[in-house]
Design brief:
The complex is a heterodimer. By secondary structure, chain A is mostly helical. Chain A is built from six helices and two strands, in the order ββαααααα. Chain A has a two-stranded antiparallel ribbon with strand order 1-2. The longest helix of chain A is centred in the last third of the chain and has 26 residues. Chain A is globular, with a radius of gyration of 16 Å. By secondary structure, chain B is of the alpha+beta class. Chain B is built from three helices and twelve strands, in the order αααββββββββββββ. The relative contact order of chain B is 0.12. The chains are: A mainly alpha, B alpha+beta.
């Protein structure tokens, strides 16, 4: 059955969404393509991390940690691959694996449909993602990487803002319950 | 194992694998070429399509939608262009007028001993029967009948009627018009008159005299209207006649495009310039009497 179903967690009823056939790979691919192409034409678009937003959204919607972390891994590795030889494979892979897991886990416990919740969660996940990237660079790659800057703070807010609208669009890919 | 623990184990495993992948890349200085190739190969077609699509959209926007106001702009620019063309034409006209007036002034200063009055041409012949112009000066300005009218280029004609504020001028090309003239080189004298055509004629030059095409014809001063040596025209054609040559002359003044003229304000005989003595006119005994140079 492709219908949405309820995941009972104690007293609360959390709805788990399924998506139209091919929606997830297409959305993922589209996010990667746009992410690789948009900054070429609009420099400010480099603030965005659309693959991260897709991972967050799918994690929050599917609410399955295993699926979420695997999706994060796949998206992260693809992003690493598209980032050129200067970015080792696994840098974004690890960070997005963590985000996929956390988003799925949190999605199973919280109501993530409200725009304000989505804004706050996205901003938080962006910070965690950046922390994971910085940690990987500093510890595993021995490369200097700031933990957090004002620029990254602005990027977190921008991504959270964009996520509010992007998630509404992605909601349309859900199968009707 | 509970599902929660399964996912945690999976998380740890996946992260560990990626850490190993990182370690391998650093240790072997390898960039994971295969997976990069696969990913780039899978994604680049979409990037290309996206880039083409964006380019098409951008071109469509720039070349069509963004040009919505171009037609209006084009019309406004056309109107502005027409206005500017008209303005340029007006300015060119004013510049030409200034040149003409400067020429008149220079000529007037050069002929300071001859009283002159500048006048503007305000009208032309009412019909084809006569070749006249109307000027904006009249009796109140001192103009009287039979006064000579010239431009710096040459003779124009004479006043045939003077009104209070305007005057009519009979052009040199009119059938009734005439001026005492002579050939500038040979100094042969003969009156010149109009025949109602753009060219005027010199009728009383004997067939024996040497006259060449291109020779200048100037006033002789014998008509006591025009000073001596004013340009009358240039010979354009010579044909032998029964007794006299038939000489066609192109008037020196552009009689078809007159805008400003000078009126010689005297009816007294004008003092001629110093010039070589003119040959006497053809003997009257053997030729028909030449017509009056200027109509009374």
């Amino acid at each position: 059955m492709n219908r949405a179903f309820d995941l009972r967690m104690g007293e609360s009823h959390i709805e788990v969404y399924k998506f139209r056939t091919g929606a997830i790979p297409i959305a993922t691919l589209l996010a990667l393509v746009i992410q690789a192409w948009l900054p070429l034409h609009f420099t400010r678009a480099a603030l965005l991390d659309l693959p991260l937003l897709v991972v967050i959204y799918l994690g929050l919607s599917r609410r399955n940690p295993s699926t979420g972390l695997l999706l994060g891994t796949a998206v992260g590795l693809m992003q690493d691959s598209l980032s050129g030889p200067t970015v080792p494979l696994g840098l974004f892979g690890i960070a997005k694996t963590v985000i996929g897991y956390l988003a799925s886990s949190l999605g199973a416990r919280l109501d993530t449909e409200h725009p304000a919740a989505r804004f706050a969660l996205t901003a938080g996940f962006f910070v965690i993602h950046q922390a994971a990237v910085a940690l990987t660079r500093r510890i595993l790659l021995a490369q200097p990487e700031p933990w957090f800057t004002l620029h990254l703070f602005a990027a977190a807010l921008v991504n959270a803002l964009v996520a509010m609208f992007l998630f509404v669009l992605l909601d349309r890919l859900r199968r009707p319950s | 194992m509970p599902p929660r623990h399964k996912s945690l184990v999976l998380l740890a495993g996946v992260i560990l694998l990626q850490v190993l992948l990182l370690a391998v890349q650093i240790k072997r200085d390898s960039q994971g070429r295969l997976i990069r190739t696969w990913t780039v190969g899978a994604v680049s077609p979409f990037e290309r399509v996206g880039s083409y699509g964006f380019g098409w959209f951008r071109d469509a926007w720039r070349n069509y939608f963004a040009l919505r106001g171009t037609r209006k702009d084009n019309e406004e620019l056309r109107r502005e262009n027409d206005t500017l063309k008209l303005r340029i034409a007006q300015l060119e006209g004013k510049a030409a007028e200034a040149d003409r007036l400067a020429g008149l002034l220079g000529f007037r200063q050069a002929q300071s001993d001859v009283p002159m009055l500048a006048a503007r041409v305000i009208g032309g012949s009412a019909g084809t029967a006569s070749l006249t112009i109307e000027i904006d000066r009249g009796e109140r300005d001192g103009i009287r009948r039979n006064m000579g009218v010239i431009t710096p280029d040459g003779v124009v004609g004479k006043v045939i009627e003077a009104y209070a504020n305007t005057s009519q001028v009979l052009l040199l090309t009119d059938r009734e018009s005439g001026v005492g003239a002579m050939l500038a080189d040979s100094r042969i004298q003969s009156p010149v008159g109009g025949v109602g055509e753009p060219l005027i004629t010199m009728k009383y030059v004997p067939n024996d005299d040497d006259v060449s095409v291109g020779e200048r014809v100037i006033t002789s001063g014998m008509d006591r209207i025009f000073p001596r040596d004013l340009p009358v025209g240039t010979i354009t054609a010579i044909q032998p006649g029964v007794n006299f040559k038939q000489i066609r002359i192109k008037p020196a003044a552009n009689l078809e495009k007159l805008e400003e003229v000078l009126v010689l304000l005297t009816l007294h005989p004008l003092k001629g310039n110093d010039a070589p003595e003119a040959k006497p006119p053809a003997p009257v005994a053997s030729n028909p009497a030449p017509p009056q140079v200027a109509n009374p």
